[in-house]
Write a structure and sequence with these properties.
246 residues; single chain; elongated; Methyltransferase, Cobalt-precorrin-4 Transmethylase, Domain 2; 6-stranded mixed β-sheet; Cobalt-precorrin-4 Transmethylase, domain 1; 5-stranded parallel β-sheet; 23% strand; alpha/beta
C-alpha cells in the first residue's frame, strides 16, 4: 500500500498566515516531517497521534542529511501513511524541494505541492513596503547567500544583483553579505542603496532594521547572530535609513 506526500509551505512562521489547504493537510496527516522554522504553534494544527519528526537544517548546527530526509518520506509513504512535508515559507523557494520530489518519483510515490506565503513577501509586508515600485523597481529577484559549504557562491552573477532598478532578496545571507556587498559596490551598486534586514519574520521576536547596503555590510561583519534572516535591498518604498522597528 502506498501513501501520499503533501509538500506544504508553512509561511514565515506566523500560524495565521497558513493557507486553509495547509491546515487541512496537517489535520489529516499521519506523519509530519517539519523544518525548524515550521515548528512551534504551526504544529498545533497536526492531529493528535500524528508522528511529528523534526528534519530541519540550520547553518552551523548538526542537521539530518538530505538523503535521510528523502528516505523517511519514501518509507512513510510506503507504509500507506498520509505525509506532510512541512517547509518554511514556500517550499519551492530554496527549500531543496526538487531533491525530495526526485526521490518520491523514483519510488513511484504520488505527491502534491501546497504553496505557502514566501518569507520575502512576509518581510516586505511587515515593513509596510512593496517588493515592486512603479517606474523604479519593476523586477524582483531572489538569490541564495550561500552555497552547499556555507560560502558565497563563486558563480553568482553580480551584474543582475547590482541592478539599481531591481528589488533583490537575499536568502540565508547573514554571514556572506559583507563579501557580497563589497562585490556589488565594486560592480557599481551605490553604497547608499536602501536595505532591510528582516529577522525572525512572523514570530514574536521579529526585528526589522532599515539601513543601507554599505551600513548593513559593516553591521553584519561585526556580529554573528543566530536568528533566521532575510536581506532586501534596492529602490524600496519610503525607507528611512537607520530606523528600527520592533
Amino acid at each position: 500500500m502506498t501513501g501520499f506526500v503533501s509538500f506544504v509551505g508553512s509561511g514565515p512562521g506566523d500560524p495565521d498566515l497558513l493557507t486553509l489547504k495547509a491546515v487541512k493537510r496537517l489535520r489529516a496527516a499521519d506523519a509530519v516531517l517539519f523544518d525548524d522554522l515550521s515548528a512551534g504553534p504551526i504544529l498545533s494544527h497536526a492531529r493528535n497521534g500524528a508522528d511529528l519528526v523534526g528534519v530541519g537544517k540550520r547553518a552551523g548546527r548538526a542537521s539530518p542529511k538530505q538523503t535521510h530526509v528523502s528516505r523517511l518520506l519514501v518509507d512513510y509513504a510506503a507504509s500507506g501513511a498520509q505525509v506532510v512535508r512541512l517547509k518554511s515559507g514556500d517550499s519551492g523557494i530554496f527549500g531543496r524541494l526538487e531533491e525530495e520530489v526526485t526521490a518520491l518519483r523514483a519510488a513511484a510515490v504520488d505527491y502534491e505541492i501546497v504553496p505557502g506565503v514566501p518569507s520575502a513577501c512576509a518581510a516586505a509586508a511587515a515593513a509596510g513596503i512593496p517588493l515592486t515600485r512603479r517606474l523604479t523597481a519593476q523586477r524582483v529577484q531572489f538569490v541564495t547567500g550561500h552555497d552547499a559549504n556555507g560560502a558565497l557562491p563563486r558563480d553568482i552573477e553580480l551584474g543582475p544583483l547590482a541592478d539599481p532598478t531591481a528589488t533583490t532578496v537575499v536568502f540565508m545571507g547573514r554571514r556572506t553579505f559583507p563579501a557580497l556587498a563589497a562585490a556589488l559596490i565594486a560592480k557599481g551598486l551605490a553604497p547608499a542603496t536602501p536595505a532591510l534586514l528582516a529577522e525572525a519574520v512572523g514570530r514574536p521576536e521579529q526585528r526589522l532594521h532599515r539601513t543601507t547596503v554599505a551600513e548593513l555590510a559593516t553591521r553584519l561583519a561585526g556580529e554573528a547572530g543566530s536568528a533566521p534572516a532575510l536581506i532586501l535591498y534596492g529602490p524600496l518604498a519610503d525607507i528611512d535609513p537607520g530606523g528600527e522597528l520592533a
